[in-house]
Every structure is written in structure tokens, then in C-alpha cells.
Amino acid sequence: MGGGPSMSLLCYYCLVFVAGVVAAAGAGTSVPPPLPVLPIPTAAQLAWQRREVIMFFHFGMNTFTDVERGTGAENPALFAPAALNATQWMDAAAAAGASLAILVAKHHDGFCLWPSAYTAHSVRASPWRAGNGDVVGEFTAAARARGVDAGLYLSPWDLHDRHYGQEVAYNEYYMAQLHELLTRYGRVWEIWFDGNKGTNATKMTYHFQEWFDTVRQLQGSINIFSDAGPDIRWVGDEKGFAGTTCWSAVNQSSITIGSAGIEKYLNEGDPRGTEWVPPECDVSIRPGWFWHRNETAKPLSQLLNIYYNSVGRNCVLLLNAPPNATGLIDGADMARLREFGAAVKRIFGTDLAEGSRARASSERGGGFEAGKVLDGREETYWAPTAEDGRRNGYWIELRRPAGARAFNVVRIQEHVALGQRVERHEVYVDGVAVARGTTVGHKRLHRLACPVAGRTVKIWFAARRGPPLVSAVGLHLDPYATDVM
């Protein structure tokens, strides 16, 4: 045939051409993600939410005077931790599963755990390290070495400084100390502004906005905590419990830092909120925030209950472990933190939804299939069509393999990077309702009354703010459930 290509080769070329045309036709036609429902988190807020458990260390003059709130008149000579070891504190944080640890650098008594140039009431005046010590420096260095991120608390209320009550003079003093803390010790991931002060405290106007802007100038990617944020809000109690309904959004104009009567609003958030300010649940492992010889750590059952009612309700748990007067975490407290961290890993380290097949009321298109809730990735998610919800509500169902193990915890997670949407949800196992709730957010955990070994798990969602975007559905067995229910 004159040296031309054979018929089989021509057929091959035709197939390649057709495949190329099909590929070209399909290129650039991926289904785009849905529009976000505002407000949405910043990258720093999103990373913070995914930490789930962080640590607090209350340590200072109160540790040595055996009180929760000092007077400001304490003698710095009392501060003498003979065995202070910040590396051991980081071991405690890691044991509890925390990736961020916050140190109380100055509490209400005004005593500074770093050698501030603006007051004599600091570690410089104490016998510890012969007056050359710096707890903040040791803390931040130990955190870096251990791979734990550092945060700092600087009390606005100061019972020692003579300028307190003088608006300009004290705000200048406070901002000078803030500048020291945010320029001397490397990156700080969270800064804590506490609005608390006694009912008979000297009247004082804090320049919060100036403080916040200064913090942003010095550390651009930091998260700022206060009652009203701007990045993280107080949950409204010190029990470690968020509301059964918990929105990440609030209207900051409705919150005045330090005011009473806003606790319920902080606890529940606001579905019509215009700012993304997720809640942080602060609670101590002991009855008090500071170490006291006659107190002991909460039992594991109570700590797990706190976990379910904080992390399991769209919050981050800030767990306080106070070092003792020698400068160490008590052995019994350390053991409890290890027990708690191990228990959380044991419960959630195995996902009994593995091997399931997922189907849903609808799917937005390629890349947003129901199976995305099972891939273990934060950035992928199931997205239904908007029309689906307008007709019937939305649902997703897991069909488990034969012989799958029983579970008693259901985990649901929204893709909150595009906003919080779910207003109500219900969980069914083999057609029987086993749990219901309102919001989901970053994570919602439901503990069931008893383990079930159902073949199908179906979750129904109501979401008027836009189709729900669900990044994960997990099933777990909590062997401690008889203790925590």
C-alpha cells in the first residue's frame, strides 16, 4: 500500500484524536465551589479552630500566697520556685494533646514574670535565678523546642501599678509592656485580654482598640482573645461548656468587654452575626486557676465531659494546668493530663465509619460527592444542590459493611471555611432517631445512650443560610461512656 500507515495504526490515531477532543471538551469544566456564606474565618482563625485543645498555665505570685486573686502589695521575695522547668510544662501540654500553650505573664496583682523595664514588681526583684530569671523567656524557648506554639496573657486590671485609674498614663504603661512581650520572645500565636476586674475596682478606661491595632502591627498573624474578640471570644462561663446551640458568628457591637449580662449571647453566638469570632472554653483541671495544696485534679470522666461539651460543640478547649510552688506540674496532675490525652486518642483514633459507602440527597457535582465525608481530609466536603434542600431538606447516609463494629459516638463536621450553615440536624441509625441537635460548626459530637451496630447511619440537615457543606462524618466507640453519660 505504498508505505502509508496501516489500517490498525490509523484506527489508533483516530482513537487518540477522539480521546484528545473529549479531554479538551472536559478541560476547564470542573464544578466550582459554592459561594461562601458570610462571615467566614481568617486563615489564622481556621488554624486555631483545628487545634481543638490548647493549654493554659496560671503561675505567679498567687502560687506562693495560696490565693486566687492577689492584692498587688505582695513582696517579690515570695516568688521562689526552686525547680522551675518549663520543658516539663510543655510535656504536660503535649500529653493533653495541645499544640498551643498560653502563659499568664501578668495576673491582676501586677507581678510580671519577665524583667519588665517599666516596673520593679517583677521577677527581677525576686530571689529566683538571683534576680536574673525570665519565666516568659524560658516558657517560649521550651515551647519552641517542644514544637508547641506559645501564647501570652497580660491582665489589664493591675492592682499594683500606681498609674492604674489614670487613663492616659496607665494605657501607656500597659502598651509598653505589651510591646515588650510581642517583640522579645519570637512569634506569639494568641494574646489574651481578660475583661475581669473586681466590683470595687478603681474605675479605668482601657484603650482596647489601640491595644488591638498595636498587636496587629507587631504580630500580624496572631489571634486576639477577649470577651468580644476581635478574633476569639469568651464562651461566657469557666466550666468549659459551650451552648447546645453555638454559632461562631456574633455582632461585636452587641458586646462590651468586661460587661455582665452578655454570657448567654457569648455562649450561643448569633446566626445573624456579622463577624466571625469563635468561642474558646477556658476551664481549669483543678477547682482553682492557681495551684493550691489542698486541691486535686478533676477526674477523667469530668474532663471527657468537658471535651464533649466544648470541642464537641464547635469550640476550642483551653485547659489550665497550674504549676506548683516548686515550678513544676504536680505528678498527679501530669498523670491526669496523660490519661485525658490517651483517652481522647483511644476514642477518636479509630473511625468505625471506615469502609462505609456514602450516598446523599444530591451532589453538587464532581469534587463534592457524598464520599468526601469519609476521606479524612479537612479541605474536601460533600456539597448538595440548593434545590435539594428547598424540596426535602438535605441528608447524607453511610452504609456500613457487614460485621462493622458497634459505635456510641457520632462525629459531624462542617466545612466552616465557607461559613457556618447548619441550623438543625437529626441522626438516624437503621431508621431510628438516636440524636438531634441544632448547630454543627467545626465539630459536633453526639454520645449515644448505648452502643449500636447499625448498618445505615443517616443524618438530616436543615440549613436556610445555604446548602450544608459537610467535611466529615465519623463513628467512634467511647469505652468510658458509662463514666461520662
TrEMBL record:
Gene Ontology annotations of biological process type: fucose metabolic process; glycoside catabolic process
Gene3D superfamilies hit by this protein: Galactose-binding domain-like (2.60.120.260), Glycosidases (3.20.20.80)
Signal peptide positions (record): 1-23
SMART domains, per database record: Alpha_L_fucos
Domain Glycoside hydrolase family 29 N-terminal: residue ranges: 77-343
Superkingdom of source: Eukaryota
Subcellular location: Secreted, Extracellular space, Apoplast
Entry keywords, A to Z: Apoplast, Glycoprotein, Glycosidase, Hydrolase, Secreted, Signal
Organism: Triticum aestivum (Wheat)
Assigned GO CC terms: apoplast; lysosome
Name by which UniProt lists this protein: alpha-L-fucosidase
Pfam families associated with the record: Alpha_L_fucos
Hydrolase among keywords: yes
EC number(s) given by UniProt: 3.2.1.51
